[in-house]
Design a protein that fits this description.
Elements (H helix, E strand, L loop, with lengths): L2 H11 L14 E3 L2 H11 L1 H19 L7 E11 L2 H10 L10 H5 L4 E15 L1 H68 L5 H35 L10 E3 L20 H22 L4 E12 L8 E10 L7 H67 L5 H36 L3
Parallel strand pairs: 1-4
Antiparallel strand pairs: 2-3, 3-5, 5-6
Length: 443
């Protein structure tokens, strides 16, 4: 790898980790990881949307309370007619029929007759097994959104941990590049002094200047990445006015303590429980559709007040009864609903099984990734030590005239590359550990 390729590699290390956002001048604010997570759990829009979905599902479930509770309605009706049958019926409802009302001429030509009636109607379901199982399905659907809301909190917490770690890396990259820039400028100054004495070629000075320019460019990108990562973290925390960028200062990037975390997959994980509840809901809907073949029994009642004058409430009457209805054939509608519900249940069962299998694979893969990253970090630490020693030896040889300027610049670039590689490995390890916690969290 030549010197130019190494410099390009250094620049690539400090870009591409966060989504670019608009950046403006801002005041830095120190933020701890736990503080960021707590703010996000409280304010994040996705979590609030999940909570609203849960409340909607709960409200939908309580709509099924109508299965056990009566429906009561109150009405007031004003009628007028000259129809002989209806007119005589009004008299009966008003309990005002007299002998003169049976006069054939009056019966046939009653004239305009009014009736003003107030009524209270009650309907009460007694037996409806289809609605009972539909209520059970609604209850399971309520549980689905409860578990989804819980998982959303866990997921947003992970996203905050990930964004915070990326911001830590951005600061670490800036620190490494700042130190590198100081060293490279010293090399450049030394090469210029040697050139003025006629000890080195003009190309050596130009190579040193190229490396200074490259490190300065990478350092500028590192500064932008700090602002970008801060904006991304602020978005997760729903930190306020989007037109104003908030720059956050983090704790230093260090490898997360290697505590034992059980890599075992658990069926009690929130997202898995949501899938299981959705499957239970689909099973209940199958039973609900099947129960529509059975008869339904409902009670009903009505209490009425009728009078020939408006806003008079006399001459009461009531009507009460029980209704049994049984739809023997519905044009294959019920049969098709049962088949559709069965297919939905089978589809959901396969989706749950597939989700569980993929989750188990992800848990196992993450455990192996952590092992690999532990090895990578140890190798990078060793490489940094070797790069330090190589730079020291090359610098001494350069002072004695036994190494070229290109050799010295290459050693310096190699050290920066290994330092950034170590920081990146630590960042990836920490993010992977947070992801493992997400995969193995049981709520």
């Amino acid at each position: 790898m030549n010197i130019i390729t190494k410099l390009k590699t250094i620049s690539m290390f400090v870009t591409g980790f966060v989504l670019p956002l608009a950046v403006s001048a801002q005041e830095a604010k120190h933020l701890e990881l736990n503080q960021a997570v707590n703010i996000a759990v409280k304010n994040n829009n996705n979590i609030q949307i999940a909570e609203l979905d849960r409340k909607v599902a709960n409200a939908n479930y309580h709509q099924t309370d109508a299965i056990f509770l009566p429906q009561v309605s109150v009405g007031y009706t004003a009628l007028t007619t000259n129809n002989p049958l209806n007119a005589f019926g009004f008299l009966l409802q008003q309990e005002s029929v007299a002998a003169a009302d049976f006069d054939p001429s009056k019966l046939n030509n009653p004239g305009a007759t009014q009736n003003y009636g107030a009524s209270v109607d009650v309907k009460m379901p007694l037996v409806n097994l289809g609605l009972i199982y539909a209520r059970k399905a609604a209850k399971k659907q309520d549980e689905v959104y409860k578990y989804k809301a819980a998982y959303m909190k866990d997921y947003i917490s992970f996203e905050v941990q990930k964004a915070y770690t990326q911001l830590q890396f951005a600061y670490q990259a800036r620190e490494i590049l700042s130190r590198t820039l100081v060293d490279v400028k010293q090399i450049h100054q030394s090469v210029e002094n040697f050139y003025n004495k006629g000890l080195v070629q003009k190309s050596d000075v130009l190579n040193a200047q190229v490396q200074v320019n490259t490190i300065e460019s990478a350092l500028a990108k590192a500064e932008s990445n700090i602002a970008n990562a801060s904006d991304g973290l602020n978005l997760l925390m729903n930190g306020g006015d989007d037109s104003k960028s908030q720059l956050y200062i983090t704790d230093s990037l260090e490898q997360k303590s290697n505590l034992e975390v059980s890599p075992e997959f658990s069926m009690n994980r929130s997202d898995v429980m949501a899938m299981q509840s959705a499957l239970d809901a689909s099973k209940a809907m199958v039973k609900s559709s099947a129960m529509n073949f059975l008869p339904k029994i409902n009670a009903f009642g009505s209490y009425q007040l009728n009078d020939s004058k408006i806003f008079k409430f006399q001459n009461d009457s009531y009507l009460a009864g029980i209704n049994l209805s049984w739809t023997i054939f519905s044009g294959n509608q019920n049969r098709s609903k049962v088949r559709s519900a069965i297919f939905q249940r089978d589809k959901m069962k396969r989706e749950v099984d597939d989700y569980i299998d993929k989750s188990k694979l992800e848990v196992n893969k993450t455990a192996r990734d952590i092992q690999d990253l532990n090895i990578e970090i140890r190798k990078q630490q060793s490489s940094v030590e070797h790069a330090y020693e190589a730079l020291r030896i090359t610098n001494n040889r350069y002072k004695e005239g036994l190494a070229s300027t290109t050799d010295l610049l290459t050693s310096q670039a190699q050290l920066s590359q290994q330092q950034l590689g170590l920081a990146q490995a630590v960042m990836t390890y920490n993010i992977t550990r947070y992801y493992q916690e997400l995969l193995t969290t049981i709520k």
